[in-house]
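Field guide to reading this record: the first block holds the primary sequence, the second block holds the structure written as discrete tokens, and the final block holds curator observations. Each block starts with its own label. This record concerns DDE Tnp4 domain-containing protein, catalogued under organism Rhamnusium bicolor.

BLOCK 1 — SEQUENCE
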Amino acid sequence: MSTGDTLAEKCGDYYILGDSGYPCLRHLLRPYKNRGQLTRVQRNYNCKLSSVRYKIEHCFSLLKQKFQQLYHVKLRKIDDIVDFIRRCCVLHNLAIDDDFTYEENVEVNLANAIPEVPYNEKEVERDDLDEIRYRNFVANNVL
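BLOCK 2 — STRUCTURE
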């Protein structure tokens, strides 16, 4: 992953998944607002996005269970925080590769895992028309 200054530079060929509280950006995929008029493709996109976000939330829960320091990170610089989280992920993956046994007591409440943000007319103004078209392209061609 690139270490550029803009979101596009940082993401490169990857995407950030967000909830409906975020603006629609080319490298930040978020669900369609459900006002009762979604197409089948849009509902499918929202379902897939929600499923992937749930898996990510579950992974974060696993990491926090194993590395409880993640609950109260005392680091202040973003680069240090990113490095700390990355090291936790590496240690987690090494433990999996070595068949390290760990008793998991992870409970994920689905109702709270992916909160739905209420629709707000002002948010539509934040969305760039090109970015909305790109999300439509992803919904129609990738998923």
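BLOCK 3 — OBSERVATIONS
Residues 120 and 136 are 20 Å apart (CA to CA).
Confidence is low (pLDDT under 50) at residues 110-117.
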